[in-house]
Amino acid sequence: MHERVDNPSFFESRGDILIARSVPIASYKLGLYGFSDVIEFHAVKNNGIILPERSGLWKPIPIEYKRGKPKVKEFDEVQLCAQAICIEEMLGCEIYYGYFFYGQTRHRHKVLLNETLRDIVKNLSCQMHKLFNEKRIPEPDRKLQNCRNCSLFDICVPKLKRKKFKIDLYINQFIEE
Fold it and tell me: What's this model's pTM, rounded to 2 decimal places?
């Protein structure tokens, strides 16, 4: 699903829309960086940004691709909002909404990037930097089933943090794999 999305050299134009893929983004204010799957730049008459080597004004809209379907909690929305904050800081603009394209539903879902989401991103960023400065890894949330999808899974090893888990069983299981 990410074949074209992960190719930064795959750029296309569809009428009044420019599509950039795998765009590096960063916010120095929040200390975040990463890649946006897709940023669509829509031609607008006002309240847009100037793009190099393009005439007119453009409005950036972040689009994130996910394999599954929309989540019950706002994890995906927070990620999209963090991307929008990075893009806003980089381009000096305001982004009011973005989209998710979920592979399972094959539809775009519009996400309004409101102050509540922005506050969550800012608070999580502060928590992340506090943990980093303390050289700590957050405890896994045992109620969540998403540990395997976490980028820190191999560092955190949530199985080892269970009280009843025996280290020798873990090592044997690891060796068998």
Answer: 0.78
